[in-house]
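Journal club prep, shared notes

We agreed each person brings one worked example of a sequence with its structure written out as tokens. Mine is DUF883 family protein. I'm keeping it raw so we can talk through how to read the token line rather than staring at a rendered picture. Sequence first:
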Amino acid sequence: MANHTPRTSESTQQLKEDLHHLTQTVEELVNATADDSRSNIKELRDRAEKRLKDTRERLEARGERVYGEARDTVTQQAEACDRYVHDNPWTSIGIGAAMGVVVGMLIGRR
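Then the structure, token by token:
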């Protein structure tokens, strides 16, 4: 999981930058409406719409990538557990029995 930290940090930084740019453009749009300069408002509105669209696309792409990475990690962990159980069946039975005893004791206390 340690190998995901740089990517997560990079994604977080990119998200912050995207949101900062979007916020900046919206602020410019709000300030421009105070001037009531019609050509300036249209230009800033177009920029805000483009940045909003770009940010939305990036967020969707990141969400899909993070989902894929999480799915792959879970699959790898499940495969590792399966291999362990096949390689160590008696140990696995012992662990399962111990967990059953612990859960039984916890339920019995209620």
